[in-house]
User: Fold ABC transporter ATP-binding protein from Culicoidibacter larvae.
Amino acid sequence: MTLLDIRQLKKTYTARIGAQSYTALNNISFTVEPGEFVAIMGPSGAGKSTLLQLIATLEQPTSGQIFLNGDDITLLSEMSRTHFRRKNIGFIYQDFRLLDNLNVRENIYLPIVLNSRPPASMKKYFEQITTQLGIADVLNRYPFELSGGQQQRVAAARALITQPQLILADEPTGSLDSHTAKKFLQLLTMIHEQMHSTILLVTHSVLAASYCDRVLFINDGMIYTEIYRGNSPQNQFFNSVTRVISALENSIEQTREL
Ligand SMILES: Nc1ncnc2c1ncn2[C@@H]1O[C@H](COP(=O)(O)OP(=O)(O)OP(=O)(O)O)[C@@H](O)[C@H]1O
Assistant:
């Protein structure tokens, strides 16, 4: 069964008095199968983060539907949305968003506590993911005592601890240096392969996109095109992604010249 089914999704931000309203997403439709690792790319302002926010139910669409496992999540009430998010979505942000007054262990267990479940119920899984993510030896430290790469791995563990149906990552390597970014992408790939997680990754990085099974390109709130990796090696897929980005940039240039 298809995990995520996005149908004719539109988001218009309503303007404050005197300003114009802005359509960030314009009738987007696509599906994601369970276990897929999908990158979402496109120029700044294309609507990528808006798309993740809508899927996470952090924003409500102007029109259209989002089905997760066959249920239309745009129909959820505000209270049900919070519950839905905690149960089904793991979100990884560019700026980590760890809580400074909680240590690493407490940060990772936080979604479990918010779900009113005893942390002990996830002890085994906690040990597995913190070991796999290489943060088992920093569990008693506070976020400010960690490097950027370590903080991002803690954020990944926090997103994974509830075993969500869907992991949404918005520019997770954006604040990491290239070496740490590469290591983090290898970790995401491992999570994807070993835990069969479904991941949607918004990124400006061709390297990050080249780790994925598919890249969905968005421009002006619409789908420009999508490409599948298939069996091609990563460097070949990297070149394919680069070619689509050049074509997209050219078409934007031509539109500007008209
Ligand atoms: N809360 C908001 N109110 C009004 N306009 C918004 C709001 N959030 C986003 N927008 C506008 O919607 C458009 C899409 O924004 P979005 O953040 O989704 O783009 P993006 O593709 O993620 O960009 P970037 O790559 O720069 O992060 C932009 O023009 C942005 O200014």
